[in-house]
Amino acid sequence: MTQKITFLGMGAMGVRMAKHLLQAGYPLTVWNRTASACDELVAWGAVAAPTPMDAVADADVVISMVRDNEASRDVWLNAQTGAFFGMKENAIAIESSTLTVDWIQSLANMFTVEERLFLEAPVSGSRPQAEAAELVFLMGGEQSTFERVRNVLKCMGKVPDNVIGKVGSGALAKLCTNTLMGVQVVVLAEMIAMLQRNHANVDNTLAALAQTPAWSMIATRNTPSMLNGHFAPLFPVELIEKDMRYMLDSVGENQMSPVIRATQQVFQQGVEHGFGAEQMTAVIKLFQK
């Protein structure tokens, strides 16, 4: 029997992910805080619901992709509209948002106490990967539960053979992934601005660096934006800054982590300077003054 799916959160990532579920033939119900964001999916055959609770009433699988801890808490646990209170007994909840480890574990515990099924499935990738169904899922939870939704997730990206570990493992892996990316983006921004101030041939210098073992995929993907000054958002400054803060939450307030803290502060400055909604590479503007 085809599983009925509910997708909560029709942001830039959610709408692209949900589209693949429709294309695969799954019956799909969608919800978004701003209802008009569901219009595109409804035109393709989805059913829109007025609240998360209403959206999940008949679902076998419920997927959430929202902005942060606060949005996740409201979507699942709002006393009047929360999805948690409307799900069927054997339905599987999947949280794909990028969240803190503490919150995802607290949420999972709510499901465990009520003997409900829960997985975390944050993704590596941005809008182009979501559009092409090339997201990489970072799974946390019970392997047996994962097996029940493997084919659903495969419609939207690459799934591993096994979960990484218990709930929280996926969040840690996602935060580590974004931290590696954020650190490199800030270093590239500082480096390119330095080359420009020294009147170097920036294109030739970067082409030479690209032939060395120190170069990376992150550098290849992000240097053109910095060089061209094109900052249309794929992964905005304000979201990578949020993820760096969440990473620091896992590091611990009293633990040494100077590089991660410095990187978060750069992105925070980007938000404070008014380009939080621009692509994360826009932080180069901080160093070009």
From TrEMBL:
Top-rank lineage group of the source organism: Bacteria
Coiled-coil spans in chain: none
Active site: 174
Protein keywords: NAD, Oxidoreductase
Domain 3-hydroxyisobutyrate dehydrogenase-like NAD-binding: 168-286
Occurrences of domain 6-phosphogluconate dehydrogenase NADP-binding (ranges): 4-159
Gene Ontology MF, one: NAD binding
Keyword Oxidoreductase: yes
Pfam family, one: NAD_binding_11
Family matches, as PANTHER family: CYTOKINE-LIKE NUCLEAR FACTOR N-PAC, OXIDOREDUCTASE GLYR1-RELATED
Protein name, per record: 6-phosphogluconate dehydrogenase NADP-binding domain-containing protein
Source organism per UniProt: Simonsiella muelleri ATCC 29453
